[in-house]
Write a structure and sequence with these properties.
Urease, subunit C, domain 1; TIM Barrel; Diaminopimelate Epimerase, Chain A, domain 1; 3 domains; seven-stranded parallel β-sheet
Length: 566
Amino acid sequence: MKKLLLALLLAPLAFAQNQPATLVLRNANIYTSDDSTPRAEAVAIQNDKIVFVGTDAEAQQYISPGTKVLDLKGATVLPGLTDSHYHFMGVGIRELTFNLEGTKSLDDFLAKVKERVATTKAGDWVVGRGWIETFWKPPAFPTRWDLDKVAPDNPVVLRRSDGHALVANSAALKIAGIDHKTPNPFGGEISKDQNGEITGMLLDHAQELMMKFVPPQAAADPEQAALAANQRSLMLGWCELQDPGGTWQDIDVYRKLYGQGRLKVRIYKAVWGPGPEADRLLQEGAQVGAFQNHLTIRTIKVISDGALGSRGAALLAPYSDKPDTSGFLTVETAPFRAMLAEALRQGIQVETHAIGDRANRFVLDEYERAFNAVPKDQRKVAEPRWRDEHSQIVSPEDLPRFAKLGVIPSMQPSHAIGDLFFAPQRLGMDRLRGAYAWQSLIKSGVIVPAGSDAPVERGEPMIEFYAAVARKPLPSRAQGANLEGWHPEEAMTREQALKALTLWPAYAAFEEKIKGSISAGKLADFTVLSADIMKIPEVEILNTKNLMTIVGGQVVYEAGKPNPGP
């Protein structure tokens, strides 16, 4: 008996001697997102897996002469942060092309366009993205006539930050053959003024009438865009990005760069549907964990409506500030239904963009219809974990349906603190009861994985964490903000917000067994921060910096040290 007890006591030491750690993080303030061991001081990693979580003293047994030891001097360590809704190529393109973020007024917007035109040859396209009129005075959309004043000889196409609308000048509209006689396409709108003249604003699917004329050379090189997004993401502390929508050409770029060892962040990729991109995935099947768990393709992304800011979100009742419209659905029902049924049979996850209360009800209805139409014994995956991306405006009577159906509301905290400046005008106070209802959904029995929807938003984890727990505008925008009716009770606790950026996205991607918490046996992904965001005052969260990003046991970003560029 004594020999058995001695063997048990020496077992960890024997394990450490036989399998020493390749990396040990010590002297750290660790939040694990693992309820069985919520806090720790040290972590031992062997290659790309965690082998130990505990105290500094206990971690000592995992250290050998070949072990790299990082003394983090009290820095806060979190499970590798995941953005559950991050348009990866879009972020890279934003970094490399004409970026109109932060324009403070129409005059400022036009001045930037004029400056860009001055460096562009006459006749060449000027393409950009990022403007938003919310903080302009008045907060009105720009028009083609505005652009014509500063760009008479260049076709100009500038997308709103949400990607659901663009403004084009007269030169671009002429090339595309769009005029007052052009009919609205399904799921889109060609905006007109009170005299019936086109304004240059194209909403949702109407954008396609223009974008097919924009030459490829006007856009960023896809490989450079992917590398720029990789660099920015790692610098901010993201270890995985769930990329909602795209093409197999995107995937070819990712595979090439992973094969060359140039892409370090993990990507959970969806392709567009219904259509040929989705058909290919349904035929070939899910592709899970390629390049040492860096790339997974198992999801179809559908867009069911537009955005609230551009009034394309599909509402159950008219917009309060534009009663002649209720927005519109952007997906046709018949192909959507057929795709959903086949996805259940083939074990493919579906995630559907839904902003307005009508769109969210439509998605829940269609998901429920598919679940009833395809019995569980005909499904390749018993638990489909289908997602409703955004879930922004939900009728209160529909909130319990997420838990009942097992549908995951994937939401973006920063949308709430940005939209609060115009959502009351768009919706009226009554519909705010079901707007950005994080806490109500959590209490109903579902998880709420969090993301940023970058490049619609900045894509910064500290902004998302702050928005989730504060549910207040950024301090730079707080002056004059009216928080009436904004339901502060819907804010997350800090523990919930941490899981919303770690464990819950892992579950939403079928990855909770290999990542999402700092637990022995899981992938060694960590985000190291300059401050304890679980305790500091809310406003200080925004000043917190990422010090180090570790993916698969490798330090892929360290503040103050040279890091590979695009």
